[in-house]
Amino acid sequence: MYYQRLPTSGWLSAADIRPSNSTNYTLSDIQVALTKGYGQLPYLGCSGPKYNSTAAGAGSDDDGYIYLDEVWYYFHVYGKPQYGVWVPLNASVSGSAVTTCAKAKGAIRYLERTPGSVW
After folding, report:
1. What whole-number distance in Å separates Cα of residue 81 and Cα of residue 14?
2. What is the mean pLDDT of residues 35-60?
3. What residue ranges do the domains of the chain occupy?
4. How far apart are CA 34 and CA 7, in angstroms?
């Protein structure tokens, strides 16, 4: 039920943000696409090297990571989760950062899955 109600890849695809091993994206574009779909800003988690440790980010103070690998949606649930009565919340309500990703233009990689990563 969650994947049907939260079609992350569909929302990204609608904004021409698709998994690619050769295209980079900008954090704000990803945030806009997911906020449009969900109605609130989700948390975006990235891993891998920090942007300022890459050739493209050398000399930058942007120490966010570059590989998009997780999206967390926040919401209030009324009743049992199975009932599906959810009210979306902005990730900033968690009191912590809303991303670990690099903020520089074109710094984010949304990589294709490898054959071994799919169950």
Report:
1. 28
2. 96
3. 2-110
4. 9
Judged by DSSP in three states, 68 sits in strand
Distances, alpha carbon 70 to alpha carbons 44, 63, 82, 113, in Å: 6, 18, 23, 13
Distance CA(69)–CA(109), nearest Å, equals 9
pLDDT digits (tens, 9 = 90+) for 72-84: 999 898 998 788 8
| Tokens describing residue 22 | 């050769």
Q: What count of other Cβ atoms lies within 10 Å of the Cβ of residue 65?
A: 21
Q: Strand, helix or coil at 87?
A: strand
Evaluate whether the domain defined by 2-110 bears CATH number 3.30.1490.190. no
Distance CA 118, CA 115 (A): 6
Residue type, 50: K
pLDDT of 117 above 90: no
Nearest to 63 by CA among 51, 75, 78: 51
Residues in the chain, overall count: 119
**Residues linked to residue 45 through DSSP beta bridges, in sequence order:** 70
